Amino acid sequence: MRNGTITTFILLGLTDDPELQVLIFIFLFLTYTLSITGNLTIIILTFVDPHLKTPMYFFLKNFSFLEISFTSAIIPRYLYSITTGDNVITYNACVIQVFFTDLCGVSEFFLLAAMSYDRYVAICKPLHYVIIMSNSVCRILNICCWVAGLCIIIPPLSLGLNLKFCDSNIIDHFGCDVFPLVKISCSDTRFMEWTVIICAILTLTMTLTCVVLSYAYIIKTIFRFPSVQQRKKSYSTCSSHMIVVSITYGTCIFIYMNPTAKEKVTVNKVVSLLIFSISPTLNPFIYTLRNNQVKKAFEDSIKRIALLSTK
């Protein structure tokens, strides 16, 4: 976004109604607090509990870190705008917001693909799991997720840095996002729009292919288990991840694959709000409430804290 005559933007937010703004503030504050608390709890538990030193929880820890970074890039700024009435954001702050939300968002998809591969190895190749999913392999996969996310966002971001804004600096959104910025630009944005769509399709295609193939082999393997108990146990280790994958891919496909969604600004803003608030809040609870190991680690940590406090 070329820093020419326009050096600041005005974020319109979701509504001008003061009563609705209060409700939105309460809703976002609660969901953001729950999201940070839930994801931080997972990160802390994976550090302190020896039973959670496995590849599955290594990826879950990094996924929680991405969720915290993703929501923190935009929600606190919007809460500040509602509280103070200051809807002005500088050009540089807008660019930084776009960079971090896109980087964390795209990296999440690649991390979900890595997590599905981890579940594939755990269920389909249990005897070789420790060798295949070694600590070094897990770290390399995690780094690759960040690098892949960076490589995906560089082409549209570099094109976006050359956009000119001549007539309007009003962004019809609660944060800096690609399509609202493109809408107010006086540059020819057709090539950039196609670049964004191609990058989105590329990300979804690569990661979703990995997820679908992994779970196709997982389901095939589970059906071969002679014991019903074995099947239930194997399914329970994957069910949480499958729910999170469905929520994440469903919302993203709606925004980027539905042509009318880009035109329906209100619908787009509401869906974006759900992505930044509901999904990061639900994810830690989906993983913890359906996972006995995490629940036990949490209970053990509470007991240790209680013992220390009584001494």
UniProtKB/TrEMBL annotation:
CC annotations in GO: plasma membrane
PROSITE patterns associated with the record: G_PROTEIN_RECEP_F1_1, G_PROTEIN_RECEP_F1_2
Cellular location(s): Cell membrane
Domain called G-protein coupled receptors family 1 profile: residue spans: 38-287
Main location: membrane
Membrane-traversing stretches: 20-45, 57-75, 95-117, 129-155, 194-218, 239-258, 270-289
GO molecular function (one): G protein-coupled receptor activity
Keywords noted in UniProt: Cell membrane, G-protein coupled receptor, Membrane, Olfaction, Receptor, Sensory transduction, Transducer, Transmembrane, Transmembrane helix
Topology term for the membrane: Multi-pass membrane protein
InterPro entries: GPCR_Rhodpsn, GPCR_Rhodpsn_7TM, Olfact_rcpt, Olfact_rcpt_6C-like
Function: Putative odorant or sperm cell receptor.
Similarity comment text for this entry: Belongs to the G-protein coupled receptor 1 family.
Protein name: Olfactory receptor
Species assigned in the record: Nyctereutes procyonoides (Raccoon dog)
Lineage, top ranks: Eukaryota, Metazoa, Chordata, Craniata, Vertebrata
